[in-house]
Amino acid sequence: MNHKPRDGFTSTFGVLVATLGSAVGLGNIWKFPALTGLNGGAGFLLVYLLATLLVGLPVMIVETMLGRAARANAVSTFEQLEPRQGGWKIIGWMGFVAALLIMSFYSGVAGWVYAYIFKAMSGEIATTDPKIAGAAFGQLVSNPVASLIWQWVVLGITGGIIMLGVAKGIEAVTRRLMPLLFLLLLILCARSLTLPGASEGLAFLFSPDFSKITPTVLLTALGLAFFKLSIGMGTMLTYGSYFRPDQNIPATTARVMLADLSVSLLAGMAIFPAVFAFGFAPAAGPSLVFMTIPAVFTSMPGGTLFMTLFFILTAVASVGAILSLLEVPVAILTERFGVGRKQAAVYTILMIAALGIPASLSNSTMADVKVFGMNAFDLFDFLSSNVLLPLGGILICLFVGWVYGLPQIEKQLSNDGKLANAGVIKAVFFLIRVVTPLAIAVVLLHGLKLF
Ligand code: TRP
Q1: Whose CA is nearest to atom 5 of ligand 1?
Q2: Ligand 1 binding pocket mutation candidate from 28, 230, 257 (most atoms within 8 A of CB)
Q3: What distance in Å separates the CA atoms of residue 111 and residue 114, rounded to the nearest whole number?
Q4: CA 236–ligand 1 middle distance (angstroms)
Q5: What distance in angstroms lies between residue 440's CA and the mean position of ligand 1's atoms?
Q6: DSSP helix/strand/coil, 222
Q7: CB neighbours of residue 424 within 10 Å
């Protein structure tokens, strides 16, 4: 047991900002558009919306609840809430692994964003020509030295911030700049939607072709829902452990979910009309954002300035998400192994840097090293988003629904009866006991072709 007083968020608003800071990140700006383009557009978006509402939100609510109930890291929480069944702490260890895997490629992509700040300033990417834009991106990611150095810059900066501690580090960084990013996305949307040929992009995004919804598409959308809300691996649990006792968990998480969705949708509406207007390939994958966004800025006044600002703000948005990912292993290492916070941060960063080498070299030196037909970057992404997070989600639901039990859930989610939200609690309980875990299991087994 740990009796040291724990660091925590200092205000209800701070909690909302930090949680939002974890959810909003490269997932909205980079991953959501890339996957939507790769998986056929509107059909994928529809499934993703359903997955977010029926699976993502309930899991987010109960995961956050567990952390606040135990006030501990992702491993110890399960030990404390159910001392007689030690096996549940596997959820926390899976989260530990997932955090490292996600960070190994996420920090690489953040590195590309940092590099693009300078490319934007130099005018190198001020083009609407898919060939030139593709070449600029290719040059960066196929350069092993540049990829690694940018990744290490990201790891150095974020590792430094995490050493400062929860309240100071996380709140201070994420509080101010988010609204500006939102504004810039709005401007981008306005420009993109008024390009000639924009309607084709809107149709791609909003008029579904149901024949494109395969088991793989379903699993990818589900994986994205987990990834977007930072759930299934203990991030929300760890953040929940810093929540205040008077925080309304269902309301806070629902707000974060809605805000997060709106950022993704804005990114989608900024990108897809331009994709069709300029003749980019919607299924370009990880390079999509890095080619299309500069093209939209290039076609408006003050483009260079706004483009630079956009990549700076995206880099800032990625920091909030990265801090929340790092916090999972850091909290486990400090609270379970008694290492200091600084030391824990250093160990975590070193583990990620090691895993990050194959991920970052996936487009250059190690492009031909494949496992299950995937390079390291794709493999780490697949294993984390499409396997570990959904699996963690199932286990969290089963733990809460069948072990933790309704009386405790009612007490926790109503803040000891102070909130009048009995209906919400009933709905959450109903979902996470059977519906949500079953839905995840079916999609997971189907998507992995195990049944
Ligand atoms: N949600 C973040 C994004 O979309 C990424 C992220 C942060 C994350 N913490 C996480 C993903 C935990 C999965 C699990 O950019």
Answers
A1: 321
A2: 230
A3: 5
A4: 10
A5: 19
A6: helix
A7: 18
Q: Which tokens in the block code for residue 407?
A: 């009386």
User: What residue ranges line ligand 1, CB within 6 angstroms?
Assistant: 22-23, 25-28, 102, 227-228, 230, 233, 235, 321, 324-325
Query: Which ligand 1 atom is nearest residue 22's CA?
Result: 7
The residue that leads in pLDDT, 434 or 175, is 434
Of all protein residues, the one whose alpha carbon is nearest to atom 4 of ligand 1 is 27
Q: Name the region of 279 (left: φ>0; alpha: ψ -120 to 50; beta: rest).
A: left
Do 349 and 159 form a contact (C-beta atoms < 8 A)?
yes
pTM of the model: 0.95
* CA-to-CA separations, 415 to 86, 96, 101, 184, 400, in angstroms, rounded: 27, 29, 35, 38, 17
Using CA atoms, how far residue 281 sits from 119, 131, 142, 378, in Å, is 22, 11, 20, 20
Lowest-confidence pick of 144-153, 197-206, 313-322, 405-414:
313-322
Rounded Cα distance, 162 and 97, in Å: 19
Residues 6+ apart with CB under 8 A from 260: 20, 23, 24, 28, 228, 229
Distance of alpha carbon 45 from alpha carbon 32, whole angstroms: 9
- Compute the average pLDDT of residues 271-287: 97
Residues 15-50: tens digit of each pLDDT: 888 899 899 999 999 999 999 999 999 999 999 999
Q: How far is CA 236 from CA 101, 118, 124, 181, 214, in A?
A: 17, 33, 39, 23, 30
Q: Per-residue confidence at 170, pLDDT binned at 50, 70, 90?
A: low
Choosing from 101, 233, 261, 325 the residue with most ligand 1 atoms within 8 A of its CB, the one to mutate for a pocket test is 325
1 pLDDT band (50/70/90 cuts)?
very low
Distance (angstroms) between ligand 1 centre and the Cα of 295 equals 27
Residue with CA closest to ligand 1 atom 12:
230
Share of the chain above pLDDT 90, in %: 87
> 106 CA to middle of ligand 1, Å?
9
Give the distance (Å) from ligand 1 centre to CA of residue 330: 16
Percent of the chain with pLDDT over 70: 96
